[in-house]
Amino acid sequence: MEIRYWNKEVETASPERIKEIQLERLKKIVAAAFKTQFYSKRLPAVGINSPDDIKSLDDLRRIPFTMKDDLRQSYPKGLLAVDTSEVVRIHTSSGTTGIPTVIYLSANDLNAATDLMARSITCTGADKTDILQNMMSYGMFTGGLCMHYGAERVGMMVIPAASGNTKRQVQLMKDFRTTVLHVTPSYLLHIHSKLPELGIPLKDLALKKAFIGAEPHSENTRKKLESLYNIDAYNSYGLSEMNGPGIAFECQYKKDLHFWEDSYIVEIINPKTGELVKDGEQGEVVLTNLIRSAMPLMRYRTRDLAYLHTEPCECGRTHRRMSRIMGRSDDMLIINGVNVFPSQIEEVIMRVPEVGTNYQILVEKQGALDRLVVKVELYPKMFLGEAKQIEQVKARISDELKASITIKPAIELHEQGTLPVSEGKAVRVVDTREKL
Ligand code: DLL
């Protein structure tokens, strides 16, 4: 197999050299952090009074973790280190309205993130002769624009198809001879189930690869996609807080994801104690972004659970690999790639006066896609009135949920006392999808 590199020197650098780069960049990030309202209070509180107090990589561990709530509380500008005239782009995390977590990028930050995206694309063996159809949403979500920029930098022809409209997607694949897809695994499975009715056989398509990510999936799902489409599917991991996709990506050998360690410091911790776990042990991924100074973010608790490989990879890259994401250390749900917290749903339904005291959130598969069902109990008097009134409540709950979580769940209304009641801690979420 011919191995392709975007930046061979960095991708194959010795672990010592990578540590040198990390330390050099960490000092710059800490210097930027002192310019933010948030870290300028938090760092002196732990005895770090200037960037010069960072003398070795071990000093990173003196910095407290940053949590998603810190980002929310710092909204909108508490973590901004530069004047907005220096910012060229903002993004937010998928699915969250209300108080989102916002990310700011300067021109240099965007350039560095784009370069990592190009590195990630290249490590799968794709190149400028490929045609990439980007089926992730454009807009505040990072999956669209960040991949777009990276693919352009590689020199690929990019089709900015965005998400949805299956018929059009398949027509584009056929007409433009798309070779690489960027897509969530659930949507790619869904498209396959629609091919017969669209009347476009697979042999009319030129697909070779798919970059799949933004949601958890199992090795079996990857294998299924590969055999259904006769392609290679590469796992892509990222999160908006760290710039989006292009943080860890599978190489041509497809044996878990290389973490770009010159650009991110990865720690795996025990989510209960916050202590580092032993090499190879599963824990929560904690990340420090070394390539973004408009909005520094250090020791960010992703809540994603995974483990690190320390043995070398056949591709020659020295950057350690991460297993696929095995779960979360919080209750965040990912529904067709969109992040949803059960608390957001509760907040909306409990605002509706007709809603009683019990509710349940069901997540299941409907064909290849995820389906979210919100079951709520209504006060008994509601069922004595007209059916129209009940329909109105249903529509209101549905619209308000869409406004809050950006997706429209199915709503089921139940009479009070009919949904299961748990003794002790309520089981609000029933997720019947495949366990990883
Ligand atoms: O999902 C960024 C992205 C876009 C990644 C396109 C890959 C491809 P957020 O909306 O902030 O950003 O959601 C981040 O999604 O913390 C994980 O829980 C989950 N996630 C992302 N990639 C994977 C993956 C984008 N490959 C959250 N496997 C993360 C499992 C993933 N979970």
Q: What report would you give on this structure?
A:
The chain has 436 residues and is α/β, with parallel strands linked by helices. It has two domains: 1-328, Rossmann fold, CATH 3.40.50.12780; 333-435, GMP Synthetase, Chain A, domain 3. 30% of the residues lie in helices and 25% in strands. The chain is built from eleven helices and 21 strands. It has a nine-stranded mixed beta sheet, sandwiched between helices. Helix 11 links the parallel strand 19 (369-378) and strand 20 (410-415). Helix 5 (107-123) crosses helix 6 (142-154). The model has no long low-confidence stretch (mean pLDDT 94). The structure holds 5'-O-[hydroxy(phenylacetyl)phosphoryl]adenosine.
